[in-house]
Design brief:
Structural class: mainly beta
Number of domains: 1
Number of strands: 9
Order of helices and strands: EEHEEEEEEEH
Distance between the termini: 21 Å
Radius of gyration: 13 Å
Helix content: under 10%
Number of helices: 2
Shape: globular
Largest sheet: 6 strands, mixed
Strand content: 35-45%
Length: 123
């Protein structure tokens, strides 16, 4: 499972070692000033939008990689039936949305200040 951390003025998403292998991304850094919302998804598949650009799909196990859509591209590392945290960004960031499965949604969302959290599920 991925981990969300705060490092100075950045939100850092660290995929697990095997997610790193599958996606080709060691960590993703987003300035906190670019984060607009963070919250849990109501279902694991809801954050998936657009078409897979570079992805690994393991049926029944995971959707991992980069998805392209009209608003840009998203980083996705979700696993069926696991809690998912969605980070939405704005401005000149590499990904418009980051969706990752985590062990505990509340703990992952709790890393951000209250004004950026979303009380209701995304999507």
């Amino acid at each position: 499972m991925a981990r969300l951390l705060i490092d100075r003025d950045d939100l850092v998403v660290r995929p697990s070692w095997w997610q790193r292998v599958a996606t080709g991304h060691r960590e993703i850094r987003v300035p906190l000033s670019a984060v607009t919302r963070v919250g849990g998804a109501s279902a694991w598949w809801r954050p998936l939008r657009g078409r897979a650009k570079r992805t690994s799909h393991l049926p029944g196990l995971a959707h991992l990689g980069v998805w392209r859509h009209p608003d840009g591209q998203d980083f996705v590392a979700v696993h069926p039936w696991k809690p998912v945290v969605v980070v939405e960004t704005r401005g000149q960031t590499r990904f418009a949305r980051i969706a990752v499965s985590v062990r505990d949604t509340r703990a992952a969302v709790g890393v951000l200040p209250d004004d950026r959290r979303c009380d209701r599920p995304f999507c």
